[in-house]
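Ligand-bound model needed. nicotinamide-adenine-dinucleotide.
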Amino acid sequence: MSASRAVPEAQDGYDTLHVGRRFLERARHHQRAGHGLRFYHDKLIGAAMADPTFKVQLFRFIDCFPTLSTPQDVYAHLAEYLDQPGVRLPRGLEVGLRAGRLAPGAMAAAVSAEVRAMAGQFIAGADARAALDVLRRGWDHGRAFSVDLLGEVCVSDAEADAYLARYLATLDDLADATAAWPARPLLEADALGPVPRVNLSLKLSALSARLRPADPEASLADLRPRLALLAARAEERGAALNLDMETAALQEIVLAAALELCASSRAPIGVALQAYRTSGRDDARSLARWARESGHRLGVRLVKGAYWDYETTLAEMNGWPSPLWPTKPETDACFEDMARLLLEAWPRRPGDGGIRLAVGSHNVRSVCAALAAAEELGVPTGAVELQMLHGMADPLKAAAADLGLRLREYVPLGELVPGMAYLVRRLLENTSNESWLRADLVDHAGEDHLLADPRGLIVPAAPADPAARHALSPAVAGLGDGRPFTNEPPRDFSRAEVRAAFAAAVARTPRPPQPPAGDVAAALATAAASSWGETPALERAALLVRAAALLRERRDALSALVIVEAGKTWAEADADVCEAIDFCEYYARCAAALFEPRRLGRFTGELDTTWYEPRGVAAVIAPWNFPAAIACGMTTAALVCGNATILKPAGQTTGIAAALVDALHHAGVPRDALQLLPGPGATVGAELVRDPRVAIIAFTGSRKVGFDILAAAGAMTEGQAGIKKTILELGGKNAIVVDSSADLDEAVLGVRASAFGYQGQKCSACSRVIVVDHGAGLWETFLRRLGEATAALSIGDARDPGTMLGPVIDAAAKKKIEGYIARGRDEARLLYAGEVPDGLEARTGRDYVAPHIFADVPRDSVLWREEIFGPVLACRRAASFAEALAEADECAYRLTGGVYSRTPSHLEQARRKFRVGNLYLNRAITGALVGRQPFGGLGHSGVGSKAGGADYLLQFCEPRSCCENTLRHGFAPEP
Ligand code: NAD
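Prediction:
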C-alpha cells in the first residue's frame, strides 16, 4: 500500500487516481442505494466465501446439478457433496439436508430454485428472443450489449453447423428487435463514427470441431466457410462481430481469423486480448502494428482472461512454463500497459488504420488507468468503450453511465445445462480472494487499496521447483542435476518455431530399411561373458542420465522416425520419445537409491544387511506400438540393474530400436552390455527366451505370445543355472463407464481419444463403453455425439501436422481388424463407419482402417471379449451404475479402465470394484506417465508389475542379505 501512496507524484498515476476517485465516488453512491449486493447477500455465497472447503463442494454440486434428473438424485448428490466431514454447512442448509432425508422432493425443489436463480442472474435467457426484455432494459439504462452464446463443447461438424445457425438466428433476431429501439447517441457512435447496436461475440471453438493448434492452416480452412457466412450476415444486418479469446493454444488461430475477417469484411470486427498472458504486451504491439500498417480498423476488447485454472493446470501437467503471469498484480500492470499500447494506435486521421479499444474489467483501477491514458494521449474519452459482464458490478455500470461513458454488457444466452460451466466461472470469479468487486463490496477495502498501482504490489516470486514439490523419485547427489525426476515436457505444437523444427525433422527422415536377423547364439555368448554387472550402480545410473541427454538432443529426429516407422501422429510420436527419456531419468534415480546396501535394525552384536545384485543375462522383447518408450523402458531397467541385455525389437520398428541402442552406446554403455538383436519373433525371439543362459525375460506384447514365453521359461533345461524370471505386460480389452452424472462433453472427447488415439493400437485403448441410462436418454445422446465426434477426426498421412488418425501398423493388422469389423456387422448394430480418403493408401504406401463404432454388442460376442488392437469400439447400455461396473469388471484382461461420473460414491465404488491395473476417473484412459501413473495390468494383462513405478526395478535384480555375528569373546562394538 505504501508504494501506491507514493504514486500521486507521477503524472499518469495522478490522473488514474483522479479519474478513479471520481468513478469510485459514483459507484459508492449507487452501492448505498443497494445496487449490486444481492449476489453477496445470498447465504450460500456467503458461506462459500467463509469456508473454502464448502465452496469447492458447493460449486462441484452446481457443476453436476443439470444432469440430475429426479428429486431423489438432486437430494442424494447434495448430501454426497455437502454432508461430509470437514464441510461446515450454513444453518439453513444443515436443517434442510436433515429434513430432506424424509422429504427429498421439497429440499430438491428449494435447491433447484436457488441454482436456477443464480444462473438467471448471469445468463439473460435461453436465446435472443427470450433475452430481449433484459437487453432492452439495459439499453434504457444506458448499456449496449454484446451477446455470447453458451453451449456444449463443439465436438462435431453437425454441432458446429448448429452453432452457426444459432449465431445467424441471433443476428437476425437482434437486428429485427433493436431496429425499433429509441436512439441512444452515446451508445451508437464513438469519435470515429457509428457503432452498431447489434454486437455478437463469437467463440471459434464453437464454429469448428477441427481446431488443431499444430495445424493453424487446416484449422482456418475449416473455419473459413462458417465465418464468411457470419460476416456476410453481419454486414447485411449492420452488426459488429467480436471474436472471443479462448485458451492460449488457440490464440494464434483466433488472431489470424480476426485479422483475416477484419481485412475482408465491411462489418466492424473485434477480437479479445488477454492481459493475464505473459505475451500480453507483445500481443498488443503486434495488433497495433498490423492495424496501422494494413490501414484497417480493428476493435480490441482488452480483458484479463478467464481460463486461469485451465491454463495453469495444463502447464503443470505438461511441465511447460505457464503462459500466464503468476500473480494478479502482474496481470493488472500488464493490462494497464496494454491499454496504453492499444490507445497509442487509435486512428487519428480519417482513413487511418488503427485500434478501437474496449476495456473489459470490473476493477475500477484498471478501467480508470485506461481512461487516464486516453486523456493523456489526447484520445477522446468517447473512443474508449467499457465492457462489463451481465449480472455483475451494477454499481460500476451505474457509475459509468453517470460519467457519460459508453458501456457495453457482455450478455450470455443459453440453456442451463451448457450454461453451468459459465455460471461456475462467474461464481469462482466473484468469490475469489483476489476479486476487486469482493474487496470493494464485501471486504470494504479502502480507496488506497482499491486504486493502488499494481506495479507497486508486484512481489517477485521465488522460482518454482516442481521436481522437489512432486518428489516422484529419490534425489541422488551427483546424478543428473541432483534433483528428483520430472517428466520430459512434450512439445507445444501451438508454437510456430516448435512446429517448424519438428516439420523439418519429419521431412528429412526416410523410412529405414529392414536389417537382417541377428545371431542369437553369438549375442548370448557375448552377453554371458560381459562384466557389466560389476560396474558400480551409480556409474550405471549416470550412463542412463547421459543417454537421456543424447535422446533429448536427438528428440525431433527420433520422433520423426517413430512417425515414419510406426505411423504415429506428431503428438503421439513426441509423447513416445518423451516417455523413453523419462524411463532413463527415472530408473537411473531409482536404481542409484536401490543399490545402496542397507543395514536392518541396530542390534548389538549383530550386523544385518541387505542389498541387491544383478540377475544375469536379460532378454528384452518389445512390441511395435510404443517403439521408443517400451523398448527403452524395459532395456534401461534391465541395464541399470547390472544385467547384460539383449533387445529383440518388433520387426516393424527396428529402426527406432537401433536409434535407442545407438544413444545408449554413445552414452558409454559397453557393447557387450547392450546388444540389438533384430529378427522375427517366431524364430529369433523364441530361440532367445528358451536359451538356458537367459536369466530374465522382459516381454511386452500379446497375450498369446506372452503365455507361450511363460510356458517356455518354466521349462528347466540342461545347464540352466536358475529359474527364469519373466516379466510380462500383455494385452487389454479396456472399458469406460459413462455414468448418468457424467460431464458429457468430457466423456465424448475422452472416449474418442481413448478409443481412436493411435488408431486404437494402444494396449491401454478403450475398446468397450458402457453407458448408464435410467431412461433419461443419455444412451442415444452419447452415441449420437460420439459418432459425430468420431467423424470429425481427420484421417491422413501421419507426417502431416493436422492428421488425427494415421495408418495401422501393417497389412496383416489391417486384415485382422477388418475381420473383426465384419464379425461386428453380423453380431451387433453398426453405429458409425468412417471412410479412408480416396488415394491415401496409394499416396503414402501404408494401410489404413477407418474408425468403427458398434452398439448393442452382446456380452458373449467376439467383439466384446477379444482384443482387436485397432479403431473399433463396442458399446452397451446398462440400467444402473452397479450393473455397468460389474460388466466393465467382467473381463479376463485387467489393464486399464475408466469412469466418467460426478457422483462421489460411484467414483469410490469404482476404486474398489473395478479391478484393473490402471484406473482413470473423469479422464481419458491412455497416456500413462512415468513416475506419475505407474503402468501395468493384472489378470491376463500381465504379472502385476508397474513399469515406471518405484518397485519395477525389483524384478530385475536379486535380493541378498547377510547376518554377521559381531560379538567376539564377549566384546561387542557399538551398534
Ligand atoms: P506381439 O506379441 O505380436 O509381439 C511382441 C514381441 O514379441 C515382438 O518383438 C515379436 O517379434 C515378439 N515375438 C513374437 N512371437 C514370439 C515368440 N514366439 N517368442 C518370442 N517373441 C516373440 O505383440 P505386438 O503386436 O508387437 O504388440 C501388440 C500387443 O502388445 C497387444 O496385445 C498389446 O496389448 C500388447 N501391449 C501391452 C502393453 C502393456 O504394457 N501391457 C504395452 C504395449 C503393448
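The longest helix spans residues 570-594.
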